[in-house]
Write a structure and sequence with these properties.
The protein is an alpha/beta fold. The chain folds into two domains: 86 residues, 2-Layer Sandwich (Double Stranded RNA Binding Domain); 85 residues, Arc Repressor Mutant, subunit A. It contains six helices and ten strands, in the order E-E-E-E-H-E-H-E-E-H-E-H-H-E-H-E. The strands form four sheets. Strands 4-3-2-5 form a four-stranded mixed β-sheet. A two-stranded parallel sheet has the order 1-7. Strand 2 and strand 3 form a beta hairpin. Helix 4 crosses helix 5. The longest helix has 14 residues.
C-alpha cells in the first residue's frame, strides 16, 4: 500500500456510496484526493445526512476513486488489496501529520498504544494529544485509528458509528484477514 498525505486547500468535492458486507459506506473526494471515509451504516439515508452535513456543497459521482472503493469492499470481504492513494489532511497541523504518518504503518492485525504512537511521532508525552488526532481522523480504515488502543490493553473509545463495539469488530475482523495482498 502506498499512501501519500497531502496538505492542500479543499477543492470542490464529490461523494459516492458503496455497498459492503457490513453495510453502506461513503467516500468524499475531489478529483484526486480522498477527503473523508464514512464507515458502513445500515441505511443510505443516515449516511447521506452525515455526508451533506460535513460537505454541504458536495455532488454525487458514482465513479469516484474506484480503486479505493474496491479496497474497502475487499477489506470487508476479508481481503487486503494493493492500493495507491493520496489523502487530504489539511484538517490537521504538523503534529497531527506526524501522528497520521506513523499510524498508517500499523498493519492489519496489529495494535499500538496511544503512548507508543506518540513516541514514534517524536512526542513521547503526548498520548492524549494522539488520542485527539485519532478521534478526528477523517479517513478510517486507510489511516487505521482503530488499531490504536490504550496502554492497559483496553480497546478504548472510537468516534465512528457503533463506538468501541465497532472498533472491537474491526480488530477482530483484521485477525481473520488474508495475510497476503491480492491484486484485482
Amino acid at each position: 500500500m502506498e499512501i501519500t498525505l497531502v496538505n492542500t486547500p479543499k477543492q470542490p468535492t464529490y461523494y459516492c456510496l458503496l455497498d459492503t458486507e457490513w453495510g453502506i459506506a461513503g467516500l468524499v473526494a475531489d478529483e484526486s484526493l480522498l477527503h473523508r471515509i464514512y464507515l458502513p451504516e445500515k441505511t443510505d439515508k443516515s449516511l447521506l445526512k452525515k455526508i451533506t452535513h460535513h460537505n454541504p456543497q458536495t455532488k454525487h459521482r458514482k465513479q469516484l476513486l474506484v480503486d479505493l472503493q474496491s479496497y474497502i469492499q475487499q477489506y470487508y470481504l476479508g481481503n487486503i488489496i494493493d492500493l495507491t492513494l493520496n489523502i487530504n489532511i489539511s484538517w490537521t497541523k504538523d503534529f497531527g501529520h506526524r501522528v497520521l504518518s506513523e499510524c498508517i504503518n500499523i498493519l492489519p492485525g496489529q495494535t499500538l498504544s496511544y503512548g507508543e504512537l506518540a513516541n514514534r511521532s517524536g512526542h513521547p508525552n503526548a498520548a492524549r494529544a494522539v488520542g485527539s488526532v485519532m478521534a478526528n481522523n477523517q479517513t478510517p480504515l486507510i489511516i487505521p485509528c482503530h488499531r490504536v488502543t490504550r496502554s492497559d490493553g483496553i480497546i478504548g473509545n472510537y468516534s465512528a458509528v457503533g463506538g468501541s463495539a465497532t472498533k472491537k469488530d474491526l480488530l477482530e475482523h483484521e485477525k481473520k484477514l488474508s495475510q497476503h495482498t491480492i491484486t484485482l
